[in-house]
Amino acid sequence: MRPLSREVAEFVELFDPTGRRDVLILADHAGNRIPAEFDRLGLPASELERHIAYDLGIAPLARELALRLRVPALLNHASRLIIDPNRRPDDASAIPEQVDGTIVPGNLGLDRAARRARIRRFFLPWHRAIAAWIAVRGRAGACPVLLALHSFTPCLEGRHRPWQIGVLWRGDDRLARPVLAALRARGDLLVGDNEPYSGIDAFGFTIEFHAQRTRLPHLMLEIRQDEIDTRARAEAWADRLADLLAPLLARGAELGRWQGTPPPRAWKRPIAPRASAPLPPP
Question: For residues 14 and 66, is the Cβ–Cβ distance under 8 A?
């Protein structure tokens, strides 16, 4: 039996159970690995276990959900502190000098050559892996669905974030709308509609570039980290999400490319923040 995981680029894992090929799970911030030559960017090891370095709980959740849905998943294991693959590479936040009160010494005062080296080594291979998978499916005549998974800290900069899960959307709500409705219909979850982050204000580079730019069906979920911080909790959420997503994704590939108004071209330049209106009831 072939292994389920293989490295398709440095720090990039393809977890690929035998099954469907019309959905791809994406985990931009699955790991906190930093090559030894970077000396942990001058940080103590304890800082690399915090949310500033990666999305806690997302790697096991992505793999467990991929197993239940029988779809592949791509996981990026390079720490977001080296360079955040979900930011435009020329954005100041892509290689943060300070994040949630922590100074990152190894990111201070980087020159252009050092920044370009990180883009070549850590940013481009991740996005090339995503683009290559989409291209293969496109040549086969498919219109795949991209499912992005992230986790968020329960408290950021003194602000409590009560939502257990958030659904981010902008423009194309063909999957966001039924997922929001199904999550709320359970009656046992506090569900965020463009919370704790707003897809309207800043969706993130990965989905903007690979899905919104090309009009592919997509969905982004944010799960609170204390909901998935153990193997058992991650598995429980994988069960919950698989039950909810399986019937929707079964029809997802039939959606085709979105025909609505093109979203702002945030993959090329920042957009001005705008108020985020929640989706109306379905």
Answer: no
pTM of the model: 0.92
Which residues touch 80 (CB under 8 Å, ≥6 apart)? 28, 29, 52, 53, 54, 86
Q: How close are the terminal C-alpha atoms of the chain, in Å? A: 44
pLDDT, tens only, 106-121: 999 999 999 999 999 9
Q: At the fourth CATH level, which superfamily is domain 5-252?
A: Zn-dependent exopeptidases (3.40.630.40)
Could you state, in order of their start, the residue ranges of all structural domains in the chain?
A: 5-252
Beta-strand pair 218-224/145-152: parallel
Cβ(174)–Cβ(245) under 8 Å? Answer: no
Q: Give the burial class of 26: count Cβ atoms within 10 A of its Cβ; 0-12 exposed, 13-18 middle, 19 or more buried.
A: buried
pLDDT in tens, 173-201: 999 999 999 999 999 999 999 999 888 87
Give the type of residue at 113: A
Alpha-carbon span 226 to 249, nearest angstrom? 26
* The two structure tokens encoding residue 105: 């010494």
DSSP string spanning 133-146?
HHHHHHHTT---EE
Mapping DSSP to helix (H, G, I), strand (E, B) and coil, where does residue 255 land? coil
What CA–CA distances, in Å, run from 78 to 14, 31, 84, 94, 200?
A: 14, 6, 9, 13, 27
C-alpha Rg value of the chain to the nearest Å: 18
